[in-house]
Amino acid sequence: RKEVEQDPGPFNVPEGATVAFNCTYSNSASQSFFWYRQDCRKEPKLLMSVYSSGNEDGRFTAQLNRASQYISLLIRDSKLSDSATYLCVVNIWSGGSNYKLTFGKGTLLTVNP
Amino acid sequence: EAGVTQFPSHSVIEKGQTVTLRCDPISGHDNLYWYRRVMGKEIKFLLHFVKESKQDESGMPNNRFLAERTGGTYSTLKVQPAELEDSGVYFCASSQDRARGSYEQYFGPGTRLTVT
């Protein structure tokens, strides 16, 4: 089982649509959770951290369910500029004082006019 | 504030040659990480420096890969000799001192390595 699994996608949605990304992780020692976005041939950019209480940043809402080991990202009123690959990323304790980011494979989103 | 920078942006080398990638982290970031994405796969952790010390190198594929961070500033990742399966995009990331509570990592633009 992969450490971080995401919806394989791709997602194609019209402008203004609401789109949801789902992610599960296998390591219960996971400490921190993030959503990154990656544009084609660019580096991953931090979109938002995900907190246990859930958090919102404008049109973006992230949720974490530690019991189910599940993370989600909701984008409301999607824009053309939201087109990118969305990466679910988990910071996993790997022994001693070591943590490392573990990435999902990403879900490609295309927002169409 | 300048972001993470990497050099070169692209490198094409022949199998058996040596390549050295460089990463300059965000100023003041003690933590520096190397990652790699091979085609069709997810981004994978390679190693982690805290200042000049290797904190975790469990992701390094084999002993053909050597990472250094002299003086705790920039880092280099050398592949010698390169093999075809080393092709991919190598990302560097940095973050602040973990004691300040920040686990957020900021990525450089990557070096696209092609081994022919």
Walk me through what this model shows:
The complex is a heterodimer of chains A (113) and B (116). With 113 residues, chain A is mostly beta strands. Chain A is built from no helices and 11 strands. Chain A has strands spanning 4-6, 11-14, 19-25, 30-38, 44-50, 55-57, 60-65, 70-75, 84-95, 98-103, 107-112. In chain A, strands 2, 4, 5, 9, 10 and 11 form a 6-stranded mixed β-sheet that branches. Chain A has a 5-stranded antiparallel β-sheet with strand order 1-3-8-7-6, with no helix packed on it. In chain A, β4 (30-38) and β5 (44-50) form a beta hairpin. Chain A is globular, with a radius of gyration of 14 Å. The model of chain A has no long low-confidence stretch (mean pLDDT 92). Chain B has 116 residues and is mainly β. Helix content of chain B is 0%, strand content 47%. Chain B is globular, with a radius of gyration of 14 Å. In chain B, 34% of the residues are buried. The mean pLDDT of chain B is 92. The A-B interface holds A 4, 31-32, 34, 42-46, 49, 87, 91, 94, 97-106 and B 33, 35, 41-45, 48, 55-56, 58-59, 91, 93, 98, 103-110.
Helix percentage of chain B: under 10%
For the termini of chain A, the CA-CA separation is 37 Å
| Secondary-structure-derived class of chain B | mainly beta
Radius of gyration over C-alpha positions of chain B, nearest whole angstrom: 14 Å
Largest sheet of chain B: 7 strands, mixed
Rg over C-alpha atoms of chain A, rounded to the nearest angstrom? 14 Å
The unreliable regions of chain B are: none
How do the helices and strands follow one another from N- to C-terminus of chain B? EEEEEEEEEEE
Largest sheet of chain A: 6 strands, mixed
Measured distance between first and last alpha carbons of chain B: 37 Å
User: What is the approximate shape of chain A?
Assistant: globular
Mean pLDDT of chain A: 92
Strand content bin of chain A: over 45%
How many β strands of chain B by DSSP?
11
Largest interface: A-B, 23 and 23 residues
